[in-house]
Predict the structure.
Amino acid sequence: MNFYVLTLFPEMITDTVSHSITGRAIEKNLINVEAINIRDFAGNKHGQVDDYPYGGGAGMVMQPGPVYRSYKSIEEKIGKKPRVVYMTPQGKTFNQNMAKEFAKEEDLVFLCGHYEGIDERVLEMIVTDNVSIGDYVLTGGELPSLVMIDAISRLVPGVLNNDASAETESFSDNLLEYPQYTRPNEFEGKKVPPILLSGDHAKVDKWRREQSIIRTYERRPDLLEKAELNKDDKKTIMSLKKQ
Ligand code: ADE
């Protein structure tokens, strides 16, 4: 999968994705992350890419020309019109289902704004998806696009060592993950739940499912409405409600 990031701060992107799981995925050619510097398409000696807003007001606005030309360079390179995600607090809030949808694309372009935003005309021309990563305002679209690249990359086959883990983790089935433990089996007087040392896989699975239900009920009850629950799950919830 190819990610193209249109940005004024390309190092923010390349430096970050080079680490950990995304870094290894790049080395294994499972994903490719290219940061395109919008300033390279300024078209003037000074590399100016922003100007004062028409109508007045605070701050600067990114001009349409450099953004458009940087986008066109990708379109020409890949020979088709890719989806273009504009990172903006005005977008649809990113979630796991959107990550799954985007993971089906072969090429994905992220457009990162800075200053007071980008000239509306070029957004109308190239953007296919407006996406926010939450109801707060950041200084630019780089961190949001990194968040999306991370969440999407781990769904690309082969990126996680263990293919099962992409699916069993939090949110994939609208349940939170059960708690995990490792050695030592006693830490500061606190013991690992004995069932995990029993070697009885069926019992362990049942306990973990129950823990997922309890956690989701306590921490994110809103998710439970969307989860597929079996008889045992419903029993667990009933007993939680009685407490
Ligand atoms: N740019 C600034 N704030 C943002 C947010 N919350 N999500 C996506 N892009 C943004």
Q: What stands out?
A: The mean pLDDT is 96. The CA atoms of residues 166 and 203 lie 23 Å apart.
